[in-house]
């Protein structure tokens, strides 16, 4: 605060830092065109004076809303019950706020939702959007392209030739690693519970399983059951697998929630894990993988790194400085008691 108690101005920050008003403006707007030593001087002056940018004036000057939309293609009940999305929302909120921006959470599950979200995005309320959990029928990337809204997709889009910017985990390699681990344990009647096959993550994890098993011709269709990334769907799929192949000796579930459902059904069926049936999941959610009985061997994907990288790419895209159009992040196997 200035000596007379008035709100500090941009000019006062510039005077204290010994730089031009334009330099202070560039620092406040997070422009990369400022030398590190000058940036440090300006930031020190901002802290000393307690300067707070006038966001309304900044928006008028930059024609920016200073808001980012986080759009999830699922229902609210699904989003708030799945720890996967909890991690996404927490990380996105933190990373967006760190840049002095506001996050707006939007969910689109049915046609009415999509109409509402499209109208909101078209109205210019946000400078860009992060898109998660897109299904094959979702046309939000196409909408964004039509209105010129910068967008980064969480996961591989259906049409990578359309020029989409995306950050994804290496789902195929992770599923392959999980299946190879089961094969390495001597398991041969290995089943899989897939994710939704109208999502690229579901398809990629199935393809990784198939590759590790030796190709489609080597996979018994009875050992493939379809799930929906939920615990209930994991339970239903496991019941079907046991009906079709009672002597199966391993299950790779394409999510930790589905793996937890599999463990529950196996216990009811009198199967001991891992002696009778080994189980591997995918996600490595602490609140699931560490607390199942037995603890869950799974594929780790770093949600915080994934979402933080998406926010970085989107921020750069909004400012016209992005260079990484397609980013693929690694996964790794975490061995616990279930396999």
TrEMBL record:
Keyword DNA damage: no
InterPro entries listed in its UniProt record: HTH_LacI, LacI/GalR-like_sensor, Lambda_DNA-bd_dom_sf, Peripla_BP_I
Annotated GO MF terms: DNA-binding transcription factor activity; transcription cis-regulatory region binding
Entry keywords, A to Z: DNA-binding, Transcription, Transcription regulation
Leader sequence residues: none
Chain ranges of the HTH lacI-type domain: 8-62
Protein name (record): DNA-binding LacI/PurR family transcriptional regulator
The keyword Aminoacyl-tRNA synthetase belongs to this UniProt entry's keyword annotation: no
């Amino acid at each position: 605060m200035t000596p007379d108690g008035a709100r500090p101005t941009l000019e006062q920050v510039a005077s204290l830092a010994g730089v031009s008003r334009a330099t202070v403006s560039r620092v406040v707007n997070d422009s990369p065109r400022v030398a590190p030593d000058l940036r440090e001087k300006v930031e020190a002056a901002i802290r000393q004076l307690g300067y707070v940018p006038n966001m309304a004036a900044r928006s008028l000057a930059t024609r920016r809303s200073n808001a980012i939309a986080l759009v999830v293609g699922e229902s609210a009940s699904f989003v708030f019950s799945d720890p996967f999305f909890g991690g996404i929302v927490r990380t996105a909120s933190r990373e967006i706020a760190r840049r002095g921006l506001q996050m707006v959470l939007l969910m689109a599950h049915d046609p009415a939702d999509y109409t509402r979200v499209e109208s909101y995005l078209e109205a210019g309320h946000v400078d860009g959007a992060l898109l998660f959990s897109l299904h094959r029928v979702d046309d939000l990337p196409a909408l964004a392209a039509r209105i010129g809204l910068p967008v980064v997709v969480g996961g591989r889009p259906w049409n990578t030739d359309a020029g989409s910017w995306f950050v994804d985990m290496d789902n195929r390699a992770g599923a392959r690693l999980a299946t190879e681990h089961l094969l390495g344990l001597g398991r041969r009647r290995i089943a899989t519970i897939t994710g939704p096959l109208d999502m690229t993550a579901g398809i990629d994890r199935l393809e990784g399983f198939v590759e590790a098993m030796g190709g489609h011709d080597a996979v018994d269709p009875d050992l493939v059951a379809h799930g929906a990334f939920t615990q209930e769907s994991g339970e239903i799929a496991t019941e079907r697998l046991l009906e079709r192949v009672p002597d199966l000796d391993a299950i790779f579930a394409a999510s930790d929630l589905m793996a937890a459902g599999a463990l529950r059904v196996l216990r009811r069926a009198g199967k001991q894990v891992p002696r009778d049936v080994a189980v591997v999941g995918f996600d490595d959610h602490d609140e699931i993988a560490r607390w199942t009985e037995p603890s869950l061997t799974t594929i780790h994907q770093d949600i915080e790194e994934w979402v933080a990288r998406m926010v970085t790419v989107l921020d750069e895209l909004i400012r016209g400085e992005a260079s990484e159009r397609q980013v693929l992040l690694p996964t790794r196997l975490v061995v616990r008691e279930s396999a």
